[in-house]
């Protein structure tokens, strides 16, 4: 059997090895495509979550700014009301006030002008948990998008 073809078992072995290599290469290629697809999906979800977080943060900041402006406006109204009260009191007395009378009693100006205790905080601060609810991505949401 010098010039004879290779034995059948050798041909089958070579064929099986070749088939195994093709399957292995195909599996590696498939794995690489899945990995790239998963990475791409992860990147899109991350960008989506970051964008959502940024929008919620901006919304919370805007809400805080509106509440702060409202509290400042209310403080100005209280101050104007106190000034008006003082002026009307001055007119009732006939415009004749000596230095002692022209002074607002200790603490009265504070009571008239300041925003009632806790009111500014209520107007300005974001309620407990609200900022977190507006800013954070709900559990699992980033992964589901």
What report would you give on this structure?
The chain is mainly α. The chain has a domain at 67-145. The chain is 77% helix and 0% strand. The chain contains six helices and no strands. It has helices at residues 8-92, 99-102, 108-113, 119-124, 130-135, 141-144. The longest helix has 85 residues, at 8-92. The radius of gyration is 39 Å and the shape is rod-shaped. The two termini are 67 Å apart. The mean pLDDT is 77.
Question: How many beta-strand segments?
Answer: 0
Shape: rod-shaped
Biggest sheet descriptor:
none
Arithmetic mean of pLDDT: 77
Q: Which percent bin holds the helix content?
A: over 70%
Sequence of secondary-structure elements: HHHHHH
| Tally of alpha and pi helices | 6
- State Rg: 39 Å
Range of strand content: under 5%
Q: How many angstroms does the end-to-end distance come to?
A: 67 Å
The structural class is: mainly alpha
Question: What ranges have pLDDT less than 50 throughout 5 or more consecutive residues?
Answer: none
Primary descriptors:
single chain; 145 residues; mainly alpha; rod-shaped
């Amino acid at each position: 059997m010098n010039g004879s073809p290779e034995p059948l078992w050798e041909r089958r072995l070579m064929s099986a090895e070749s088939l195994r290599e093709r399957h292995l290469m195909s599996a590696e290629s498939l794995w690489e495509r899945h990995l790239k697809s998963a990475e791409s999906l992860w990147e899109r979800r991350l960008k989506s979550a970051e964008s959502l977080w940024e929008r919620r943060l901006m919304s919370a900041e805007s809400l805080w700014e509106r509440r702060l402006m409202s509290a400042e406006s209310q403080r100005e109204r209280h101050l104007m009301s106190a000034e008006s009260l003082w002026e009307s009191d001055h007119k009732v007395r006939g415009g004749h006030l000596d230095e002692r009378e022209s002074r607002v009693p200790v603490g009265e100006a504070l009571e008239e002008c300041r925003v009632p205790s806790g009111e500014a905080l209520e107007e300005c601060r974001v309620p407990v948990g609200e900022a977190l609810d507006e800013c954070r991505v709900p559990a699992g949401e980033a992964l589901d998008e």
